[in-house]
């Protein structure tokens, strides 16, 4: 699918609020999905919603989630009909402090994917997906680890979710105070928020002759 | 409710995986809910799951979420029967790199709340909840802002969710590699992850004689 073709707008990916913050272009959606690595996966169990945090990765127009074959949502995705899910990724960029409590907000970038998750059974696709999840967290890591053996693969469910019904929502910039509030004596502005990766701490049982690999050497 | 009484264990708050990571004590649950400020709220619309990011605050054994009266989940919570929801908060503490791809993980603390959300109509409870949401993001801020006026209050829905069916899940520590993998030549350990709040940036139209308030003066 061309990068130039946006995701289609549907009934359920149009926000009811702040429509001007919605984006459907693939570039924006992919950038958010690639910067995040933790999603919140929602599904329905016994008629009630369940939301669980999990890792994911993107390959092209498909997201992958993995987990134990015993986990409830992944078992559900193993049925022929698949499992209806909503997968949401949110990155926080700042706390927006307006003069009015009402206009307090956060700067954020989020992606919401609606669709049906299916278990992946093709061994090649499973292997690519598992590498992608590891490399998504730390690029370069999959090649520098022992890949799953047959026993581990048998215990691992890989689930795919196609990017077909997708939207991003993005808020940037300063507070949007009402004109009448601008002269109020309250500080207003934005507190930037970033995720920080600190100095890697070796495992207690790591052979001390094994150096920190290059892909971990720079903080970000 | 005494802090000493844990949340009851039910069918749906027992994890199917990694049961040893589950916690039901109020102290652990409250600490995670108070450190986070962004939740992912799941609900069911037309039979399908929806997961949206939103701000929240805790007062005692109750969580509050607010939003536009026009938003779909908040309208649903305004019905007599309320809206079945799952509210999940996840804090990431580290990336866990094991020798084996299979044992890669993250250190995290999460809370999952199952229950029914109801709109709050009592004006006093609404006011307390709105202050709590602002103060949850930046403690001390509610008193240093213009509180909502009648028009803004009329446009704001406040929703409550009681903490009755709740569980925390916590992973800490280093990689759990299999004994047979310990001699493999791969670096293993943990990359710490923290959320960082940077230097507050004043709004472009802020009166330059208004100093940064004390509650924002220290980075964290």
From TrEMBL, chains A, B:
Signal peptide: none
Pfam families according to UniProt: Pyridox_ox_2 (PF12900)
Domain of life: Bacteria
InterPro entries: Pyridox_Oxase-rel, Split_barrel_FMN-bd
Gene3D superfamilies named among the record's database cross-references: Electron Transport, Fmn-binding Protein, Chain A (2.30.110.10)
Region Disordered: start-end pairs: 1-21
Protein name per its UniProtKB record: Pyridoxamine 5'-phosphate oxidase family protein
Organism: Streptantibioticus silvisoli
């Amino acid at each position: 699918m061309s990068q130039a073709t946006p995701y289609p707008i549907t009934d359920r990916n149009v926000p009811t609020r702040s429509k001007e913050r919605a984006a459907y272009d693939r570039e924006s959606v992919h950038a958010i999905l690639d910067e995040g690595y933790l999603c919140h996966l929602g599904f329905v169990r016994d008629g009630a919603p369940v939301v669980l945090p999990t890792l994911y990765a993107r390959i092209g127009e498909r997201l992958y989630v993995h987990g134990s074959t015993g986990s409830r949502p992944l078992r559900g995705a193993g049925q022929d009909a698949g499992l209806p899910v909503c997968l949401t990724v949110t990155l926080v960029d700042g706390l927006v402090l307006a003069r009015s409590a009402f206009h307090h907000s956060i700067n954020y970038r989020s992606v919401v994917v609606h669709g049906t998750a299916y278990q992946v059974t093709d061994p090649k696709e499973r292997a690519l997906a598992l590498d992608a999840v590891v490399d998504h967290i730390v690029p370069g890591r999959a090649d520098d680890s022992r890949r799953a053996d047959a026993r581990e693969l048998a215990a691992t469910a890989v689930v795919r979710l196609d990017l077909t019904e997708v939207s991003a929502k993005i808020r940037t910039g300063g507070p949007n105070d009402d004109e009448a509030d601008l002269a109020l004596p309250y500080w207003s502005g934005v507190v930037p928020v970033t995720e920080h990766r600190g100095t890697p701490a070796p495992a207690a049982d790591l052979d001390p002759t094994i150096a920190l690999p290059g892909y971990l050497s720079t903080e970000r």
